[in-house]
Structure formats: structure tokens, C-alpha cells
Design a protein that fits this description.
- The chain has five helices and twelve strands.
- By secondary structure, the protein is an alpha/beta fold.
- The strands form three sheets. It has a seven-stranded mixed beta sheet with strand order 2-1-3-4-12-11-10. A three-stranded mixed beta sheet has the order 5-6-9.
- The structure holds glutamine.
- Glutamine binds next to helix 4.
């Protein structure tokens, strides 16, 4: 059983907790700096990356979390969480943690295709359900980044060392194998 910190300042964190608890893991809601201790893994949920980035800084959670990610804490960033991790945003000078060497485009599917569901091959897992909500995708990734999944030629999942970045929301489908990749 792992003790997983789930960033809980804004966005879709409850569903991640439910998924992790189904697998028998303990979840710690990270709402303030003092919550950040003794973590085996970290989940950065979907939501609104601009708001999350602002709150992380205001609540002084930004530096300790960034240090843990850089030090190798297994980290899953989904949707807004992927945007927080990226070293670069497309046509946007904002950088949050900047620990995942890739360029990410926010709201990349436009208004009409903002939200959709599909299935696509994912790393060694075979086909995985993927629910996208006003999703980003990875426009470009550094050579050291392992591409895990593409949809319509766009990178929607990738791994860099301890960090898994997803454009979609695994917590909204029943498959829990991506969480097992994070915490065994
Ligand atoms: N569009 C959101 C953002 O830019 C991400 C959407 C999501 O997390 N579902 O932060």
C-alpha cells in the first residue's frame, strides 16, 4: 500500500482518490504545505492549470512539490496536471513546475472537439479508455521522453523518468492499470 498525495486545491481530485483507494492505497489530500510529507507518489489532477498554478504559489506548496518531483517522486499529471509539469507551453510564456521536457498546447482540440472519449494503444497495456475534457496534447517532446500513446497522430501520454503525463482523465474510466504503473 502506498501513501499517495493528491493535489486538492482545485479540479477533479476526488475521482483520483477513489481510483487509488480501489487499489488499496492511502490518499492524502494536499491542500496546504503541511500536508506534503511522507509521500510515495503524487497525483496532479485535471482542472484549470492557471488557477492551480496560482494557488500552489499562494499556498507555498510550489517549491516543496517541485523539489519532490525533481528528486524522483513518482508523479502522475493528468490534463491540467500535465500542463503544470511541462517545461514549455505552446504560444504561452507560462511555466509552472517545468520538470517534464515537452511542449504542451492547452485547449488543443478547439471548442467543438473539447471533450470526447476514445480508446487507443497505451505503452505495454494494449488499448486504454481515454476521456478528454478541454484537453491539451504534447506538441513536441525531448528525445528522452518515452511516448506512451497517440490519438490522431497527437501525443496524449508520455513518460519522463518518474513523471507520467496524460492529456486525458484515467480517473473517469474503469481501467486502473495506469495507476498501477504509478504505484505498483
Ligand atoms: N483546459 C484546462 C487547462 O488549460 C485543462 C482541462 C482539464 O484539466 N480537464 O488547464
Amino acid at each position: 500500500m502506498a501513501r499517495v498525495g493528491v493535489l486538492a486545491v482545485q479540479g477533479a481530485f476526488i475521482e483520483h482518490e477513489n481510483a487509488l483507494r480501489e487499489l488499496g492505497h492511502e490518499c492524502v489530500e494536499l491542500r496546504q504545505r503541511a500536508d506534503i510529507r511522507n509521500l510515495d507518489a503524487l497525483v496532479l489532477p485535471g482542472g484549470e492549470s492557471t488557477v492551480q498554478g496560482k494557488l500552489l504559489r499562494e499556498l507555498e506548496m510550489f517549491d516543496p512539490l517541485r523539489e519532490l518531483i525533481v528528486a524522483g517522486l513518482p508523479t502522475l499529471g493528468t490534463c491540467a496536471g500535465l500542463i503544470l509539469l511541462a517545461t514549455k507551453l505552446d504560444a504561452d510564456p507560462t511555466v509552472h513546475f517545468g520538470t517534464f521536457p515537452a511542449t504542451v498546447r492547452r485547449n488543443a482540440y478547439g471548442r467543438q472537439l473539447g471533450s470526447f472519449h476514445t480508446r487507443a494503444p497505451f505503452g505495454d497495456l494494449g488499448e486504454v479508455d481515454m476521456t478528454f475534457i478541454r484537453a491539451p496534447y504534447i506538441v513536441e517532446a525531448a528525445p528522452e521522453v518515452e511516448i506512451l500513446a497517440k490519438v490522431d497522430g497527437k501525443i496524449v501520454a508520455a513518460q519522463y523518468k518518474n513523471q507520467i503525463g496524460l492529456a486525458f482523465h484515467p480517473e473517469l474510466d474503469k481501467d486502473r492499470r495506469i495507476y498501477t504503473m504509478l504505484v505498483g
